[in-house]
Amino acid sequence: MNGAASGRASASRGASRAKGRALTEGQRAERRLGLWLCAPAAIIMVVVTGWPIVYSVLLSLQRYDLRFPEDKAWIGLSNYATVLSSEVWWNAFWVTLLITVVSVAIELVLGMLLAFAMYRAIVGRGLIRTVVLIPYGIVTVAAAYGWKYAWTPGTGWLAGLLPGGSAPLTERGPAIAIIILAEVWKTTPFMALLLMAGLAVVPEELLRAASVDGASLWQRFTRVTLPLMKPAILVALLFRTLDAFRIFDNIYVLTNGSQGTGSVSISAYHNLIGGLNLGIGSTMSVLILVTVAIIAVVFILGFGTAAPGSER
Amino acid sequence: MEAGRRSVSGWTVANVVVVLYAMVPVLWIASLSFKDPSTFTDGSFIPRKWTLGNYAGIFTNADFVRGLVNSIGIGLISTFVAIVFGTMAAYAVARLTFPGKRLLIGVSLLIAMFPQISLVSPLFQIERALGLFNTWAGLILPYITFALPLTIYTLSAFFREIPWELEKAAKMDGATPFQAFWQVIVPLAAPGMVTTAILAFIFCWNDFLFAISLTSSDAARTAPATISFFTGSTQFEDPTGSISAAAVVITIPIVIFVLFFQRRIVAGLTSGAVKG
Amino acid sequence: MAEIVLDHITKRYADGTVAVDDFDVRIADHEFVILVGPSGCGKSTTLNMIAGLEDITEGELRVDGRRMNEKAPRDRDMAMVFQSYALYPHMTVRENIAFPLKLAKMGREETQERVERAAGLLDLAPYLDRKPAALSGGQRQRVAMGRAIVRDPKAFLMDEPLSNLDAKLRVQMRTSISRLQKSLGTTTVYVTHDQTEAMTLGDRIVIMRAGLIQQIGPPQELYDHPRNLFVAGFIGSPSMNVVPARLEEGLLRTPIGDIPLRGRLGRAAEGPDVPRDVIAGIRPESFEDASLVHDAEEGGTFTGTVDLLESMGPEKLAYFTLDTGAVRSEHLSEAGGEEAGEECRLVAQLDPKSGARRGQPVRLWYDTQAVHLFHPKTGENLTER
């Protein structure tokens, strides 16, 4: 790995130096090949996201309701004013934030335990590693139906455990709790895998040295393992936070946003596809995009998370 | 000895907890899918009256069968294209020096973090204008786009593990850059490509938001979206059985994939993220 | 077969670091040239520039008179053997060796024939259908050689090809590489950090340090007439002994006795800009147990207590500590000699019949005409000016 890294480093040094003067045939071929190889991927990604983003911003500046197409007009930022002064939007925003923070926090703890179990288990390590991937592999919608029926009175085994007559999915607090449960169940394995890869970075010798130096298990974890894992933890948190913030499938199936349990994605969806109000829906889309960008920036600049894919 | 035995039994308990955690919700829906409609509400974990009727029902349901075909077709095409383009780009990112490399990494990072909902409204409009709405292509395009960052990261991590000298050796042996790539690197990267393909396919198969937003009929609606439209309107009064059976059906192939390629998937999921 | 000319070649990176500075060597057809030096001296960069894997900032690379600077590696017709062997793990030995021929679109029959011939030369015939993973280190190394010789290139470029082998195998392979090169007569450039390999393999050695050529010449010439302290310290094992010395009227005062300034020492002392304080160097084999020397006329003697005695079989190495501070010089530390301690140490290579014992004093004779004098600042060998 090291050799390759330094090879790359010198190669990229070579390239920047080459700018000012004639390139060798080999270098020209390399540049050409690089551009050609990236072109299809780059074009698709930019065409499918670039123009739609711009278009989305344009739509957000218009009054545009497909049910009343003749009312279409440029109205500046007034959609933003409408959305940002709407109680529904802020409710969805805070619900999303709550779900994100709580589920990511639980996932971090559970994921860490699971990562340890997968990494350190004396017996059944293979079994744990295999079983843990099942939630990851299951289609979110299918799993969500599983949870839905489990908590629905009548068809549900979990609902049956509750005091008679309660229908948790129809009450706001319990419903949000179930949404979080479904989300945590589905994504903890992914978190655990990322954390396990981080654990593998901690040299075994260091832990042995710490234990010879008299550190307890807990001290070894907090003083040696955690600091060394910090980059991996931050990347995992970044990924999961952004992913949790766009939660859609689980809520759609479990409550479809009723009783004030909708996330921002659900709100935007209802405005777009249900309400056919492109102006308001696009405004919400843009606001979600901005929020996600802020979260990413906070992680990368605030916590110093290495942006995935950056070459350090 | 004593401590060893205690930790073994401790791990056994931990294993049981983990297995229950992962399996119970799945087993519940499987159990529902085998229940006779008359016993849905008995609350029993093990069906009292077994039936395959729910499965028979969904496979005679043209919408669902069509949804499965759509899911498989769209998933395979998207995966194939994403892998081909992603492999090319990942190789370039991992190995070559060319202007715009950082930009490509940046763009794919942005897309990986992108909230899909933000694309729904413009794509809805644009695809309707272009006639892509409610077609396979209309779903394949966004799927490729969102699978590409995943494939580029995962594959470039795999490429970086292939010794750099092999490529130099190929060049010294008289290979053009393309020959070095095709005859030396690709065969070595094949396991990584299989892994990445599985991850990309799971992503496409799992998608729900685009599937319900960019389709309006069974022409392109994929299985997860079809299931959500079962509600109330199909041949059963109560869609519980159909939905459960359908959920099991769309889950099984992925679970088999995952279990079969377990080791590789773990490597693939973590390589892109941690090494960066 | 080719003559390779490196005409004032320089490699400079964007950040200004100069990896290779004004490298100017003409490698004759059939010649076996070694690039040697400590790590980071620019020897591998030079090889990569010849190969076309790195480009040349300044200067010109010519092969048989044709400029090669802009040519891609595949158009240079050179074969390379890598330290890691770089065998293609998904191909069998046969496919590995045949790969360059396949790329050159050679016909099946000729390919077959050439692969068999190369395999025969390298005793690889029984392994042709194995994958590299199923081979030992030495076999892998031979496959890498096979891939190089099979297409009969203009030149072999070898980048530390023996470094990954264990000591015994390395000696064996050294001999077979040497034999192979002599029989094929292919121009070869060989990079190593190991001075023993350099001494035993090369027709000529180019010794480098920090991107600069220090000296070029046949092994024995470098050994006998090192141009500076760095070369003197790098070539030879055990390394040349260095002691502080002072030039006085007609005498060189050293911790191992005063040496009359006669002959080449005298000429060296009379040269321009010669400081009073110099460094004296003398190779371990220039010493002998004084009791075994019949005619001790032409030499000096000194008596010291043996710190440590190593019996090597054909010789004995006796270690002494001198009553003076050690010579400190960047020229020496870069040559990769042992970390200089506080004390000045000396090693003498004695006849096995010597009666020297550990902890006992012994009287040594040394050849005063074999003493080199070095400039303490520039490291220049004053006796070789």
From TrEMBL, chain B:
InterPro entries, sorted: BP-dep_ABC_trans_perm, MetI-like, MetI-like_sf
SUPFAM superfamilies reported for this sequence: MetI-like
CDD domains: TM_PBP2
Keywords associated with the record: Cell membrane, Membrane, Transmembrane, Transmembrane helix, Transport
Alphabetical GO biological process terms: transmembrane transport
Membrane topology, as annotated: Multi-pass membrane protein
TM segment ranges: 12-34, 72-91, 103-124, 136-159, 180-203, 243-261
Residue intervals of the ABC transmembrane type-1 domain: 68-261
Subcellular location as annotated: Cell membrane
Coarse class of the protein's main subcellular location: membrane
GO terms under cellular component: plasma membrane
Positions in coiled-coil regions: none
Membership in a protein family: Belongs to the binding-protein-dependent transport system permease family.
Protein name: Carbohydrate ABC transporter permease
TrEMBL record, chain C:
ABC transporter domain span: 4-235
Origin: domain of life: Bacteria
Keyword Membrane listed: yes
Coiled coil: none
Example of a GO MF term: ABC-type transporter activity
UniProt GO cellular component terms: ATP-binding cassette (ABC) transporter complex, substrate-binding subunit-containing
InterPro entries (alphabetical): AAA+_ATPase, ABC_transporter-like_ATP-bd, ABC_transporter-like_CS, ABC_transpr_MalK-like, ABC_transpr_MalK/UgpC-like, Mo/tungstate-bd_C_term_dom, OB_MalK-like, P-loop_NTPase
Keywords of the record: ATP-binding, Cell membrane, Membrane, Nucleotide-binding, Translocase, Transport
Any single GO BP term: carbohydrate transport
NCBIfam families assigned to the protein according to its UniProt record, in alphabetical order: PRK11650.1 (NF008653)
UniProt name for this protein: sn-glycerol-3-phosphate ABC transporter ATP-binding protein UgpC
Species in which this protein is naturally found: Nonomuraea montanisoli
Gene: ugpC
